Amino acid sequence: MRIILLGPPGAGKGTQAKDLAKELSLSHISTGDLLRQNVEEKTELGKAAVEFMHQGALVPDGLVNQMLKRRLTQADTQKGFILDGYPRNIRQAEALDDLLKAQQNKQVDFVFYLDASEPVIIQRLSGRLVCSKCGLNFHLKNMPPKKDMLCDRCGSNLYQRPDDQEKTIKKRLEVYRQEVSGLLQYYQQGNKLYSILADGDARVVLKKIMQLIEQHDDSSKV
Ligand code: AMP
Fold first, then answer.
1. Which atom of ligand 1 is least distant from the CA of 55?
2. Ligand 1 centre from 85 Cα, in Å?
3. Which residues contact 83 (CB under 8 A, 6 or more apart)?
4. Whole-angstrom Cα distance, residue 14 to residue 19?
5. Tens digits of per-residue pLDDT, 139-159?
6. Integer distance in angstroms from the first to the last C-alpha of the chain?
7. CB-defined site of ligand 1, < 6 Å
8. Tell me: the pLDDT tens digits for 11-45?
9. CA–CA separation, 208 vs 210, rounded Å?
10. What are φ and ψ of residue 101, in 5° steps?
11. pTM score of the predicted model
12. Distance between CA atoms of 70 and 210, rounded to whole angstroms?
C-alpha cells in the first residue's frame, strides 16, 4: 500500500507516518529527514540543499526527485510506503506517478490531508524538540522530556531544528500555501484524497486514518 501524508508543517505528518508505518508494517519515507541526513553527512546533495532548507524554501525538484527515485529502488519500499513531506507541488506529484508507473504500473492508494490551523502549527513547531538519534519528537511545554534535553527513549541529545525559528516557520507556511491547493486538486481528481482535522490528539487522528483505510482499501490493487 502506498500512502501520502499532506499538510502544513506542524500538522503531525511525521508523527502519523511513524505510527502508521508501525501499524501497517510499511516503510516511512520522510524527504525532510533524508535531506537533513545528507546535510549532516555533507554529501553533494546536502551541500546543494542546505541553504534552501535554512531559508524555509523548497529544495529544487530535480534534486529531491532524484533522491526519492533512489530511495524507491530499495527493497523495503516494494511492498509499500508512507511518504511524509513529498510531494510538495504538482511537478513532484507527477514525477512520483511516473516513477510508480515505471515500477510495474503501481500507483498511490491513499492521500491523507492533515488539516491543522495556524495558531496550533506555530505553537507546535516553535516548541518542537527532536531526538538527534531516534527522531522522536518532544515539545518544550506540551511534552517535555523527563531529563533536560535528553530523549526519553534512547537518551540521546534533543535539538531544535534550525528551520523551526518563527521567521522560517512563516516562510515555510507561505511556501506551503502557494502549492497546496494545486496538490489537493490533483489528488481529488484522482479520487484518492481524504481530509482529516489534525488540531487535536495524535491518537484520534491515527484512528481516523486507520478507519478510512479499512473502509476504502481495495486489496486487489497492485
Ligand atoms: P520537512 O522535514 O518536511 O519539514 O522539510 C524540511 C525542509 O526540507 C523543507 O522546508 C524543504 O526545504 C526541504 N524539503 C523536504 N521535502 C521536500 C520536498 N519534497 N521538496 C522540496 N524540498 C523539500
1. 12
2. 6
3. 2, 3, 4, 5, 17, 29, 31, 96
4. 9
5. 999 999 999 999 999 999 999
6. 8
7. 9, 31-32, 35, 52-53, 56-59, 64, 85-86, 88, 92, 163, 172
8. 999 999 999 999 999 999 999 999 999 999 999 99
9. 5
10. -60, -40
11. 0.93
12. 29
pLDDT of residue 219: 57
Edge-to-edge strand ranges of the sheet holding 158-159: 137-139, 128-131, 158-159
Q: For residue 144, is the peptide bond before it cis, meaning its omega torsion is within 30 degrees of 0?
A: no
CB 85 within 8 A of CB 32: yes
Amino acid at 135: G
User: Dihedral of CA 204/193/88/43: which sign?
Assistant: positive
Query: E strands, the chain, where?
Result: 2-6, 27-30, 81-84, 110-115, 128-131, 137-139, 158-159, 193-197
Indicate the length of the chain as a whole number: 222
C-alpha cell at 54: 535554512
CA pseudo-torsion sign 202, 204, 205, 211: positive
Q: How far is the CA of 184 from the centre of ligand 1 (A)?
A: 18
